[in-house]
Amino acid sequence: MIENRDRLTTTEAHETAVECVEAGIEAGHPRRIVRDAVGLNGDSLRIAESTYDLGNYEEIVVLGGGNAAAHVAVALEAILSDRIDRGVVVTDDPVETERVTVHEGDHPVPSERAVDGTRELLAAADAADEDTLVLATITGGGSALLPAPAGDVSLADLQSTTDSLLTSGADIHEINAVRKHLSALKGGRLARRAAPATVVSLIFSDVVGNDLSVIASGPVAPDESTFDEALAVLERYGIDAPEAVVAHLEGGASGEVDETPGADDPALAAVSNHVVADGMTVLEAAQAAAAERGYETLVLSSRVRGEARDAATTHVAIAEEVRATDTPISPPAVVLSGGETTVTIRGNGSGGPNQEFATSAALELDDGKEDGEGQIVVAAVDTDGIDGATDVAGALIDETTVEDPEAAREALAENDVYPYLESRDALVLTGATGTNLNDLRVMVVD
C-alpha cells in the first residue's frame, strides 16, 4: 500500500509504524466494511442491525458521493447484483462498476465536473418515489465532491468560499455550516429531493464524534445549523465571501430561502442512517497489528482535534513519558490516536495537517533526545491518502529527521513543510486508498 515503504522502514520501529498504518487503512476499505455490514437472504436485506424487505420496493437505487463512494457501490453490487436498478455516485477515486454510474469530481476544492455529476445525482433522486429504496453511500470527502450551488451562487463563488474556509483555521463543523447553506443537496436536502422514497444510508465517517450532519455535510441527515450560524462563521474568521454568497445566506437568514430540514421535517421520516465505519475502525486494526508484533498498546483517543503542531507537542510528551517512566504503559509500546487536526494558514507553501504534525513532532524529539534512550518513531497520515491538498498521505519521522532545526521551524512558519519533509525522505505515499476515515497517528516507543 505504501509506495515508498522500503525507504521508510529502516528499523524495526519504523517497520512497526508502517505496519500499523497499512493495517488501519486496509481495515477501513469498503470491500471489508460492506461485506460485514450488509447481507442478503432472499428478499431480506440486512444493513447493520436493521433489515429491509426488498419485496416492498419496485426499484433499488444507489446514490452518493465521497472519496470511497465508488468502492462502496462496487461492494453493494457484489451483494445485490442485478437487483440494483440504477445509481449515481461522485468521487475522486473512480473504479469500474456494472450498474451504478460513476462521475469524477475533485477534492478538497469543488470542480465543474463534480457539479455536473451532482446534477445527475439530484435528477436521479427526483425520479425516486414511494416504491424506491435508495441506498445512500455517504463517505468522507463528500462535501467537496457533491457541489450543488444554491440560488445565484456560482461554482467560482463556492470554490472561493471553500478555499478561504479551509485556510482560515475554522473546524469542520464551522466549514460545513457554511457549505450546507450554499448547497441544493447538503444539510438533508438530498433526502428532501428523494422523498417519499425510503432512504437507507451507509456512512463512512471522517468526522470526530460521527456527527451525521457533518459527514459529507449530511445530505440525508437532519441539520440543526442555520443561515445565521453560517453568516457568523464568515464574520468570525474574517472571510471576504463573494457578494452572491453573502446575499444567499442573508436571504436565508431573513426567511426568503427555506432552511435546511431539521429532525422533525417530514422529508426525513423515511430515512435511516447507519455509520458502518469510523476512526475507531482504523485505530482498532492498527492496535491489533502492533500487539501482534509484541508491543504494549494504548489508544489515546479517536477525537483529537485542534492545531496540528500543538497536538504534536502533546503527543510527543506522552511518548517521552512512556520511554522515561513506563507511564501509562511500558516500552516497547505503540501509542495511537485518531481525529482531525487543523492548520491555520499564515504562509504560502505546501503541506497538510499530518505533515505539520510530523514536522512539529520531529522538532520536539530533536529538542528532547538524550543519548542511550530508546527510539521514538511517529507516523501521521490521512487515511484517504491525501493530506491537505498534496499528493501524499502524511509523514513518518524520528529523532534524526531534523538536522537543521531552524529550517524546520521556517518550514512550519511558512506552512511549507512538504518540501522539507521530502528532502528528509519522510513523506508517506499511498495514492488513493479507497477509504476516508479521518487521520491516524502512530507513535512507536522502543
CATH topology call of the largest domain? Rossmann fold
Can you identify the CATH class of the largest domain?
A: Alpha Beta
By CATH, the architecture of the largest domain is named 3-Layer(aba) Sandwich
> How far is the first residue's CA from the last residue's CA?
24 Å
* Poorly predicted ranges: none
Radius of gyration: 22 Å
| Strand tally | 15
Structural class: alpha/beta
Total of helices: 16
Shape: globular
Biggest β-sheet: count, sense, barrel? 6 strands, parallel
How helix-rich are the residues, as a percent range?
Answer: 25-40%
**CATH homologous group name of the largest domain:** Glycerate kinase, MOFRL-like N-terminal domain
Strand content: 15-25%
Give the spatial strand order of the biggest sheet.
6-5-4-7-8-9
The domain count comes to 2
Pfam family, one: MOFRL
Organism: Halohasta litchfieldiae
Protein name: Glycerate 2-kinase
Domain MOFRL-associated: 17-250
Fold and architecture overview:
- It is a single chain.
- With 446 residues, the protein is of the alpha/beta class.
- The chain has 2 domains: 5-26 and 280-445, glycerate kinase, domain 1, CATH 3.40.1480.10; 30-278, Glycerate kinase, MOFRL-like N-terminal domain (Rossmann fold), CATH 3.40.50.10180.
- 38% of the residues lie in helices and 21% in strands.
- It has 16 helices and 15 strands.
- A 6-stranded parallel β-sheet has the order 6-5-4-7-8-9. The chain has a 6-stranded mixed β-sheet with strand order 10-11-15-12-13-14, sandwiched between helices.
- Strand 4 (59-65), helix 4 (69-80) and strand 5 form a beta-alpha-beta unit.
- Helix 3 crosses helix 4, helix 8 (172-180) packs across helix 10 and helix 15 runs antiparallel to helix 16 (417-423).
- The radius of gyration is 22 Å and the shape is globular.
- The model has no long low-confidence stretch (mean pLDDT 95).
- It holds the Pfam family MOFRL.
- Residues 334-439 form the MOFRL domain.
- GO terms for molecular function: glycerate kinase activity.
- Keywords: Kinase, Transferase.
- It comes from Halohasta litchfieldiae.
